[in-house]
Design goal:
Layout: H1 3-35, H2 37-42, E1 43-49, E2 52-57, H3 60-68, H4 70-81, E3 88-93, E4 109-111, E5 114-116, H5 125-135, H6 141-163, E6 166-168, E7 175-177
Helix pairs in contact: 5-6
Length: about 190
Amino acid sequence: MSELEKISETFIKIKNQISHINYSYDILNLWSNIVGEQFSKNTFPIKFDKGIIYVSVSSNVWLNQINFFKLEIIKKYNEYYKNQLIKDIKFLIKKNDNLNNNNNFPTKKINNNKEIKIKLEILKEEDRKYIDKCVAIIEDNNLRVKLENFFSIIRRRELTLIKKGWKRCKKCNILFNSNNDDYCKFCK
């Protein structure tokens, strides 16, 4: 395999990963807009994988309620993306009164149209070097800088979650809030 073919293959892999990360991030962030205020107070999207959105729900009552709207939620997502991106939604009960008030989810939250910024961890030198190595093959400076920033934010978010006690699932590798478990609730 020539050097150019290796670079091309690497670029395609990076592009596919970024595309999946962008969709995942976008899908999870759209949740409150898609389901509305009441549902978003009692549900929290955990991950998007292979066309399935995994959602944490505060109680059996809310699980029952949101199940009535499952097909409508899938339809809204697919209309938004203009394709059949979402195939299913799986719900998991998480015993909390209000999932949006749970500080275990260090994401930007919107409260009365105001953003609450969460301080992310600072990258270590080895993280910066790894990110630089990943984007070094990209000749377009503008694209390279954007990807570098994108990867930096993702890594900083991961470090923040890990500092808050989250762990990687040994099966699917997603970060999850652990109580000394090795597998997320979906992989158990």
